[in-house]
Amino acid sequence: MTRDDAKHSPATVVGSEPAGDAWMTAMRRGDFATAWSIADDVLAARLARGETCWHLPRHQQWLWTGAPLEGRHVLVHCYHGLGDTLQFVRFARALRRRAARVTLWVQPALLPLVATAPGVDAVIPLGDGAPGIARDVDIESMELSHALRIRPDRLADTVPYLVPPPRDPKLPPASDRRRIGFVWRAGGWDPARSVPTAAVAALFDRLAKNDHIEAFSLQRGLPADETQNLRATDIGTDDVCLTAARMRALDLVVSVDTMAAHLAGALGVPCVTLLREACDWRWGDTGERTPWYSSMRLLRTPPGGDWADVITTLEQLLHPSTVGRPTEAVPEQTSGGHVGQRHLPPCPSAHAHPRGRDRSDDIRTT
Asked: Closest by alpha carbon to 276, among 311, 301, 258, 304?
């Protein structure tokens, strides 16, 4: 596993190569059953050796020992990134159908939002030291899918599973133009996930000439000299619940692989996620759809290509002529470097938000 893979993988399989690499390969191809079998073997071997992990960084600590969950008070530790927590909190509902009580020990920034997830009985702020509550079973949030033997075929049916508290998004008055929010910079620990601000600024300049689109920046954490001349309305905030309210007021969110993409997906907000060629295991290796989020579409850097290719495809997707059409042929760089054609499904619409009945109970386990 690379450093990136290890940071955003369940600690059960981190540091267990070659098993960890085999687990990641299985997850990339959507073979969850094989991945859980690999994780079973790794966990059993670690327990047999009496291996401990408390000396490791939190995100590398495996907590679940295979202990039964039925009728227990389960404490879910959220030791990975904010996006990982938002992605895996969906499993609280399936966990609660087995456990007597589910408590999340979660990043403070997410407390009011994840408290709305089905199956969550209580939330306490994650901090240094011990959680300070009595419980029967400890498990890390990214271990839930293994412990519950989740199957991929109905993952997206749980969306949306977060309902932010009512907030005024405090956006400019609505117009006839499609409102699109952008996030292009990921965390500093992995700059390869980020699109250069200069490229995004040029995109905003072109979109400003489009009478059908209104661009908004949801980006946080950039120096002022990078953002002061951007032709997009700045609506970025560190308040996650306010960000959620603003996303729900937009027609589309465009994000790189960072917390914002998971937030939009968990809310059921139409989202386009921009991925580099060597992307994280959860997005697979090919395809424009993901089983994790029904409202999300993936745009990948083509083999040998760069972010300019992704932005070109994105612009064609956002063009008014593509909106509402069943399919639209747009150029695609094939693996041989030649320009071909592919048929894209229609760009997600705000009118198609999957906010019907709660289908969280439909998630399948084995």
From this structure: 301
